[in-house]
Amino acid sequence: MSAAGAERQDSRRERIVRQFALTDVIFREVSRLAAVVVLALLGGVALSLALGSWPALSTFGAGFLTTESWNPVTEKFGALAPIYGTLVTSAVAILLAVPIGIGIAVFLTELCPRPLRRPIGIAIELLAGIPSIIYGIWGLFVFAPFLQATLQPFVIDAFADIPVLSSLFAGPPYGIGMLTSALILTIMVLPFITSITKDVFDTVPSILKESAYGIGCTTWEVISHIVIPYTRVGIMGGVMLGLGRALGETMAVTFVIGNAHRVNASLFAPGTTISATIANEFTEADGVLYTSSLIALGLILFFITFIILALARFMLMRIDRKAGA
Amino acid sequence: MNMLLRKLALTTALIAAVPFVTAAQAADISGAGATFPYPIYAKWADAYKKETGIGMNYQSIGSGGGIKQIKAKTVTFGASDAPLKGDELNEAGLAQFPMVMGGIVAVVNLKDIKPGELVLDGQVLADIFMGKITKWDDEAIKKLNPKVKLPSKAIAVVHRSDGSGTTYNFSYYLGDVSADWKSKVGVNTALEWPVGIGAKGNEGVANNVSQTDGAIGYVEYAYAKQNKLTYTDMINKEGKKVSPKAEAFSAAAANADWSSQPGYGVILANQPGATSWPMTAATWILVYKHPDDAAATTDALKFFAWSYAHGEKMAAELDYVPMPEKVVKSVEAMWQKDVTGKDGKPLFAAK
């Protein structure tokens, strides 16, 4: 009687265990499927970009990357101007945004009076929530006319006789152009860099900072020797996130960059970026080669983003290894 | 809580109901294409809906987009400012006819200069847009405007960044007056612009010109008027000064020989006549000759016939020029001959 009862209990137990095992398998497979779907999507995007850009790439070859001319009349397309514009505007934006962002983060975590911390922090995060079209409209109607009337004529005159700077800031002052887009991008990526930097600064153990202060370090020494080295991986992550945003930003840039397919040394000159070109021309592009060239631009942006992310990973890995050693 | 739930339920029901409402109005005419005639198409459609209850859904996505959409058969008609060539029409099985005409004007942003004060001619305009003339006080501009005080300011050229029928007609005119333009830049809906900044759509060009001191751009006349931009007068083919007005646009169209091109594809740039506006342009409609959905095409043709017959006054209000009677007769005859259903019978019956 008791043996039979134990047997029955055993079989019930077995059933439940089997059931658990089954749900585990299902769960594992479903989550694996989710991961595979992401990979498949990524592969699909890359594949369709590659297929779509094949007519352009096979016609123009490697010259596509180095040709400035973008001529829909004769159907001769080159991607140099958009690539140049994308890289220059993003680089300038990051160059400006990183010091400002880190500065804000330092102020918020180390120097700011406590009651002001939250309001300023929230205001910066709100900047990230503003849709890019608003930045574009503000850029075109407020910021560009302001630059045209004030900063640009001043800078053009001031640097007129200095060799390199004079060509970097050559006129005429259009208001819109590469520098204007870079400045708008700076404002747009600033919240990403600031909020991530602030968060990682908060992770620095107080004991480290307090010991530094204890042996007589100044605030500057604590920041530059303790806080930033401790958090550089996180800062790098924030910078990369900002860079990713800057590279792909479309709407705001389209409004203020001037959409001209030219490579110009002057930052005041109108230019174009990859995403602005696609947004402007895709709906109206007729002919296989034109459409295909635009898709090829998309493929190039895909690669640029990929390479930058890979570089970031590589850099982080090296830093980790150095820190570990 | 209960209130909130009820509200939520109501909203959901409303959202869910929207597709059904649209489905009930399936008789709406669907079209896509040029931005240039969009203001007048919208006005006609509005009046037509009041009269017949049949509305129109027109997406002003640009001429290139209109051609793509009609070829993909996602719309009943396509609209384009750049006419398709005869063989392209035949290949796709499309019928093409002109719907309305209008003018393109050069607009400038110069302090103290009022609309119509500045005069330009084709050669100067071509040189400005090629970057040969870079200052407003250039000799060539001064010569045409001896009485106007021109500033020594850089010219900021503003052009379209998207493909556009307006660009096609504008570059066609510049190519007609300047051999240099024709060989170096060419004529197309999108160009490799030697100078300037690009802006999307007629609205974009209008905005950029009004934002940029010393700018010059080109837009459809209605946009210049609505945005109160400073347009310029032009010297036409006969060497006469003309202002952009409906009369000047229709004078340009008066001499056109519409039957000379397949699908009525006549470009009205630089037409003869002492009062002709040099940058006049027509805009075209594309429908299938043997459409899959015969009923939808019939509805569309009825709308176009109604617009030809009753749209004149509305067109004049927006400074568009209606098609001449003779052309309308010929177009309607073409519908009866060419646009047929599966049974081979014409879809459009003249009254």
Summed up:
Chain A is mainly alpha-helical and 325 residues long. Chain A is built from 13 helices and two strands, in the order ααββααααααααααα.
Describe how the helices and strands are arranged.
The complex is a heterodimer of chains A (325) and B (351).
Chain A: H1 2-60, H2 63-66, E1 70-71, E2 76-77, H3 80-111, H4 114-129, H5 132-149, H6 151-158, H7 163-168, H8 178-202, H9 206-214, H10 219-248, H11 251-256, H12 274-281, H13 288-324
Antiparallel strand pairs in A: 1-2
Helix pairs in contact in A: 1-13, 3-8, 3-10, 3-12, 4-8, 5-8, 8-10, 9-10, 10-13, 12-13
Chain B: H1 2-24, E1 29-33, H2 38-52, E2 56-59, H3 63-71, E3 77-80, H4 86-92, E4 94-108, E5 119-121, H5 122-130, H6 139-144, E6 156-160, H7 165-177, H8 179-184, E7 197-199, H9 201-211, E8 215-220, H10 221-226, E9 230-231, E10 233-235, E11 241-242, H11 246-254, E12 280-288, H12 294-310, H13 312-317, E13 321-322, H14 325-338
Parallel strand pairs in B: 1-2, 1-3, 5-10, 6-7, 6-8
Antiparallel strand pairs in B: 3-12, 4-8, 4-9, 4-12, 4-13, 10-11
Explain what the structure shows:
The complex is a heterodimer of chains A (325) and B (351). Chain A is mainly alpha-helical and 325 residues long. Chain A has 13 helices and two strands. A two-stranded antiparallel sheet of chain A has the order 1-2. In chain A, helix 5 (132-149) crosses helix 8 (178-202), helix 8 crosses helix 10 and helix 9 (206-214) packs across helix 10 (219-248). The mean pLDDT of chain A is 88. By secondary structure, chain B is α/β, with parallel strands linked by helices. Chain B has two domains: 29-102 and 280-338, D-Maltodextrin-Binding Protein, domain 2 (3-Layer(aba) Sandwich), CATH 3.40.190.10; 103-255, Periplasmic binding protein-like II (D-Maltodextrin-Binding Protein, domain 2), CATH 3.40.190. In chain B, strand 1 (29-33), helix 2 and strand 2 (56-59) form a beta-alpha-beta unit. The model of chain B is unreliable at 10-26 (pLDDT under 50). Classes of the chains: A mainly alpha (325), B alpha/beta (351). The A-B interface holds A 69-74, 140-141, 144-145, 148-149, 171-177, 254, 258-261, 270, 272, 280-281, 283-286, 290 and B 61-65, 67-68, 154, 156, 161-164, 185-193, 195-200, 207-208, 211-214. Chain B: The complex is composed of two ATP-binding proteins (PstB), two transmembrane proteins (PstC and PstA) and a solute-binding protein (PstS). Chain B: Part of the ABC transporter complex PstSACB involved in phosphate import. Chain B: Residues 23-304 form the PBP domain.
